[in-house]
Amino acid sequence: xxxxxxxxxxxxxxxxxxxxxxxxxxxxxxxxxxxxxxxxxxxxxxxxxxxxxxxxxxxxxxxxxxxxxxxxxxxxxxxxxxxxxxxxxxxxxxxxxxxxxxxxxxxxxxxxxxxxxxxxxxxxxxxxxxxxxxxxxxxxxxxxxxxxxxxxxxxxxxxxxxxxxxxxxxxxxxxxxxxxxxxxxxxxxxxxxxxxxxxxxxxxxxxxxxxxxxxxxxxxxxxxxxxxxxxxxxxxxxxxxxxxxxxxxxxxxxxxxxxxxxxxxxxxxxxxxxxxxxxxxxxxxxxxxxxxxxxxxxxxxxxxxxxxxxxxxxxxxxxxxxxxxxxxxxxxxxxxxxxxxxxxxxx
Length: 347
Ligand SMILES: [Zn+2]
Fold this sequence. Notes:
There is one protein chain. The chain is α/β, with parallel strands linked by helices. The protein has a domain at about 35-45 and about 90-320: TIM Barrel, CATH 3.20.20.370. About 35% of the residues lie in helices and about 15% in strands. It has helices spanning about 30-35, 70-80, 90-95, 100-105, 125-145, 165-170, 230-235, 235-250, 275-280, 285-295, 305-310, 310-315, and strands spanning about 35-45, 85-90, 110-115, 150, 175-180, 200, 205-210, 215-220, 220-225, 255, 300, 320. The strands form 3 sheets. Strands 1, 2, 3, 10 and 11 form a 5-stranded parallel sheet that branches. Strands 4-5-7-6-12 form a 5-stranded mixed sheet, sandwiched between helices. A hairpin with a 2-residue loop joins strand 8 (about 215-220) and strand 9 (about 220-225). Helix 5 (about 125-145) packs parallel to helix 6. The longest helix is centred in the middle third of the chain and has 19 residues, at about 125-145. The radius of gyration is 19 Å and the shape is globular. The structure holds zinc ion. Zinc ion binds near residues 42, 44 and 119.
């Protein structure tokens, strides 16, 4: 590891005081204390549905009733109850519309990271639009939170082997880690991580730390289990036993949740295709209870803290990428640069 990781938490939260050294052992006792797991939230609203003609266009977003603030505040309370801190990957557009929300997350002692500005699939971008989207989201989130933004997660895990150029731009824009790989099946393609846990991604002129989603095996397939639709669909006993298996292999479990997933009352997009509807709305009533059980059974820290306290483990596992195909987006789908006024008056 040539890079030094800074702990992103600049505010010492008033409600949450445990540090990574004081995490509780949970069901796995002392083993968990040595290497806690990773708790993450993708902060987006109920209408941020990827790659669907039926979902509202970005020009309509401001007209829709927002539920993200109330839902994220509930997550903050759940985390405070469990005395745990997390990494919040915030969509830049949400930060722009709800700056107070970003401040509240940071003031509670959590890490702020980027989930892009427009929440668009990476393969819709060309290099310049991706760079503008990233840089704007990073600057906005840093201005609002007072923290360095070190991490990124691609919407829909959409960095595939055809979008490796995105890793280079992330490193060039000053990101220290990426959390977009999956070591199994992902709905928007995904990049099959060679490791189940955090490792070093070697690029020709840079390094990034990669923090993938863990998976479990069924026959020759591997499925994620630790968040989103998987956590909503699978019984808690399956999630817990898959997590214990990942832990036994020496890796932390990266859990992810969206604010809308604890909101059974959210508006439904009835015109989505059947399978998409199932994927977005299955198990909404049980998610909060499953999340609370996970927080009770396992110990968690924000990603930047885990990286800062495990330099050797990350340095030992290395994966190099030397193929960088040029992006070929359909011109009609390339997202616009974020509006210029986004960065005015955020300081
Ligand atoms: Zn997302």
